[in-house]
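Budget justification aside, the reviewers requested a transparent look at the raw inputs and outputs of the sequence design task funded under Objective 1. We therefore reproduce one unedited record. The lines immediately below are the structure tokens for a 187-residue chain.
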């Protein structure tokens, strides 16, 4: 466990093809995946406003969430930066729960942990849902701070429950039916 952040809750991989990445994990018995097509998610990237566009898949292996992300090359983001530097893709971030993104960032500053926030998500002007940061003195895999919310608790609970009851074959890739708060088979 990290002394600064707590236990890692998610491994985030940025990949050139989300479909291939989901198949990679499914072949290893990790699944089922929930596929999400994300469009116009408001955020801040290197201090500039963005509307993020990407495809992502989420699954669980035990208590670890596996996320695979393919960014749109036409929308600036830390994910596109990562693929530019590492075209084959790889582990881009580790995520941790926090109660408040701003409080955790202030705590890091108060502990003199030098960091730069590269990207944030949520509703303007606060962007409180997520923050991606890198340590200045030891750059590398980014840290994602994820603010707890009823939505994320519900979504991640559905994902974890699906993984615990999955037979390894049935409906390996699913979609989120947000209107009915359930997972459905992808056609």
């Amino acid at each position: 466990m990290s002394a600064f952040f707590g236990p890692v809750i998610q491994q985030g991989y940025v990949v050139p093809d989300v479909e291939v990445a989901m198949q990679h994990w499914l072949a290893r018995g990790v699944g089922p995946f929930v596929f999400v097509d994300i469009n116009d998610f408001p955020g801040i990237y290197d201090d500039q406003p963005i509307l993020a566009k990407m495809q992502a898949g989420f699954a669980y292996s035990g208590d670890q969430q596996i996320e695979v992300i393919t960014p749109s090359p036409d929308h600036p983001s830390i994910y596109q930066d990562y693929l530019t530097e590492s075209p084959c893709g790889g582990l881009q971030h580790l995520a941790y729960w926090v109660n408040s993104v701003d409080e955790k960032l202030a705590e890091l500053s108060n502990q003199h942990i030098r960091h730069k926030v590269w990207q944030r998500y949520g509703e303007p002007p606060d962007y409180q849902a997520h923050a991606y940061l890198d340590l200045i003195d030891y750059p590398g895999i980014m840290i994602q701070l994820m603010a707890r919310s009823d939505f994320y608790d519900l979504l991640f609970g559905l994902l974890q429950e699906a993984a615990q009851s999955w037979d390894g074959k049935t409906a390996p890739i699913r979609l989120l039916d947000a209107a009915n708060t359930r997972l459905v088979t992808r056609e």
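The longest strand covers residues 48-61. The chain has one domain: 10-162+174-185. Computational costs for records of this kind are itemized in the attached budget.
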